[in-house]
Amino acid sequence: QVQLVESGGGLVQSGGSLRLSCAASGNIFSINVMGWYRQPPGKQRELVATITRTGNIYYADSRQGRFTISRDNAKNTVYLQMNSLRPEDTAVYYCHADGAPWGQGTQVTVSS
User: In a 3-state reduction of DSSP, which class is residue 89?
Assistant: First the structure.
């Protein structure tokens, strides 16, 4: 089993930046791909970006250019750097790994 803990969310003004962290524990060597998802209030959960253990990266079309996903395999941690934030980026952000249960998420709120 794999456990995931998200952190780094908070309140930021429009145009600001945040860096989210996702720490994995448990059977981490079973993980092939990790990613960030988000769920805005009243909306469905959506994919933001994914990264494989070997470094292959995918960005959802609407987030490419503002968000950057990265990883530190030695620390079993994945990051999401978010720049030029907009109010529509307000959501609960979740980390995910294949075969892992969803964590609690971290709240990101972008003020107008």
Answer: helix
Residue 93, CA distances (Å) to 27, 30, 32, 35, 64 in order: 23, 23, 20, 10, 16
Angle at 18 between CA 16 and CA 23, to 5 degrees: 175
Q: Which alpha helices (H) appear in the chain, and where do they start and end?
A: none
35 closest CA partner among 26, 47, 53: 47
- DSSP annotation of 11: E
Using the Cα atoms of residue 97, residue 93, residue 72 and residue 102 in order, give the sign of their dihedral: negative
Per residue in 82-111, pLDDT (tens digit) is: 999 999 999 999 999 987 888 899 999 999
Contact 95, 6 (CB under 8 A): yes
Largest CA distance in the chain: 41
Per-residue tokens: 14? 């429009």
Q: How much is the pLDDT for 95?
A: 96
Residue 8 pLDDT greater than 80, yes or no: yes
